[in-house]
Task: inverse folding
């Protein structure tokens, strides 16, 4: 996939998740999400921590060990929305730097192309945007280009996701399910 297209999908995914974060009302931060054992705050915290890693890995060439536990625990502080916004913009800027997607990044399973890492981040944003939408009663239909991207990204390794413990086992989609429903079912969601 061309770098421009990948960056466009990443930016769109950040925008969708940002839109949902801005819709969280004060009384919804403790609400349950489709992610087992995660509240809305836990979910946003997870995505925020992921975005905080991006500049270190992509721009600075850091390793998991060198960043250490900097983003373990609660990174949201007293203003979760502002913290998310800052983290999202940092990730957007790091991936958009000239040559960033041509670099190699050091992930938990070893060196990986930054473009591949960006693709994983897009898919995570897409799926968790649906989770957050479901949790707060926001629009659940996600933009088709993002859904199509996530399907292409996750299909080659979908069978291994449930083994990771981070996703539930796949769910059989209902007859005539649309692409988004099939994606969610593949990732253990019950739309």
Result:
């Amino acid at each position: 996939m061309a770098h421009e297209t990948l960056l466009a999908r990443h930016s769109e995914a950040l925008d969708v998740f940002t839109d949902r974060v801005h819709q969280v009302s004060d009384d919804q931060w403790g609400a349950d999400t489709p992610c087992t054992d995660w509240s809305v705050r836990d979910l946003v915290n997870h995505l925020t921590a992921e975005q905080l890693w991006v500049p270190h890995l992509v721009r600075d060439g850091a390793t998991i060990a060198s960043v250490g536990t900097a983003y373990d625990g609660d990174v949201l502080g007293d203003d979760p929305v502002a913290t998310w916004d800052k983290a999202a913009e940092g990730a957007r800027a790091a991936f958009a730097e000239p040559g960033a997607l041509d670099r190699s990044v050091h992930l938990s399973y070893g060196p990986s192309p930054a473009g591949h890492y960006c693709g994983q981040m897009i898919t995570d944003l897409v799926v968790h945007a649906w989770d957050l939408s479901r949790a707060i009663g926001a629009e659940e239909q996600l933009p088709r280009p993002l859904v199509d991207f996530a399907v292409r990204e996750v299909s080659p390794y979908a069978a291994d996701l449930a083994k990771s413990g981070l996703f539930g086992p796949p769910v059989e989609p209902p007859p005539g399910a649309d692409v988004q429903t099939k994606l969610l079912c593949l990732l253990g969601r019950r739309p």
Notes: The mean pLDDT is 93. Residues 3-139 form a domain with the Four Helix Bundle (Hemerythrin (Met), subunit A) fold (CATH 1.20.120.450). Strands lie at 104-107, 110-113.
